Amino acid sequence: MKLKKIASLALAGIMAVSMLAGCKDGSSSSTPTEPDVNPVDSSLANYVNSELDAKYTNILKLSADSTLDSALSKAAAMIDENELKATSTNWITQGSAIQNSFIEMVKADTCDFNDFKDTTKDTVVADLIIVPGNFTEDGMKDQVVTMMKGIINTNNMPTDGTSGGKTYNYTYNGNIAVVKVESNSGEYSAYVVGLVVDQTVKEVVTGV
Fold first, then answer.
1. DSSP states of 149-192
2. Which end of the chain has fewer CB atoms at under 10 Å, N or C?
């Protein structure tokens, strides 16, 4: 399996699925056993916004979204018991297949935040984040806040860029949701967080 370049995003037991395997390559030959997928408190977006300083929310504010909720539940159902067991070490063997399906369902372009740099057209990045299921819901939310502090910055989400001698301004909107996945045996569980960030691009026109 072709691995994408690993970013320094693993924080306090969290790992983005796209970091584990290339977001557009690879699959597994194992036959998944569909787990139980249950919704978690829908206030995650509001909680994360309230816990982030203005330097983060001035770049990106998060919202809940029913389309994301549906896509996340379907993607999370692809995680089998072996993968849930592996969340204790932040490793999901079928990460690529799950990631690809999720990207397609939310109509994103990529799972790579580097694709926001120097773009000339609107771009959508989608990612899946795994939080081990032994956290309480409050603990999970705090882990997501920590993770978002690592993602929301002007390196991942620049406010402007250049291409072909032209300058562009960028703004962002994001949706976030979470479900809890539990193996049929009840032995393993994990929170699966879905994140979708839309970049809006506007060309800077001077002398008008």
1. HHH-STTTS-SEEEETTEEEEEEEEEEEEEEEEE-TTSS-EEEE
2. C
